[in-house]
Amino acid sequence: MDKFYFLIPKNKPVFILILVLLLILILILLLIIFLKKPQESLTPPKISDLQKTIIGKTNSQEIEKNLIIKEKKELGEGKVEYNLETYINPVRPDQVIVKDGQVIFERINIPEQTNHPSYVKLSYFKERFGEVESIKKGSKTYGPLIETHIYSSKGVALIANPFTEEVYEIQLFKPSTAEKYIREFGEDINESGPIKEDLIRE
To answer: Which of 9, 32, 39, 77 is such that its CA lies 20 to 30 A from the CA of 16?
Structure first.
């Protein structure tokens, strides 16, 4: 035992204090690890009862199995566009775009009947998300006075009538920037130039 005597601390109170401090430090580190908040999700929130997919999670097999597909288009670069059967707007149907097997975009038509459970107005989104991040005026489909309200950090865009606050479409995508949304999915935006169609609701 004498040869191990050097391992026994001469000042036991100090040694015990050091051990206690080390244990406290370990406990604090463990608490930080377990209580650390998860990173913000890159998936847009659940928006509507009419929503059919989860961005970044729903895959092409689920779409082809569970949804009624009106038309399927190969877009290249691993992208596939599905136009779905819809009673709300047959001219511009609900749409899902898949890239490399996962959903990256969904277009949802919103009913115009105010008593419909999925009817929604711009004020709902302002209350939920705050001030809109970007607004683009003019729509190739609905007319020059209609606006696209973009919450790019939430992965949500709304095509709506700013005068009545009626929402015509909800579009979901992976949260990014307004510029990226416009470049990839904002084909309906028409800030200047001729209008292809006029489907503004009476």
So the answer is: 32
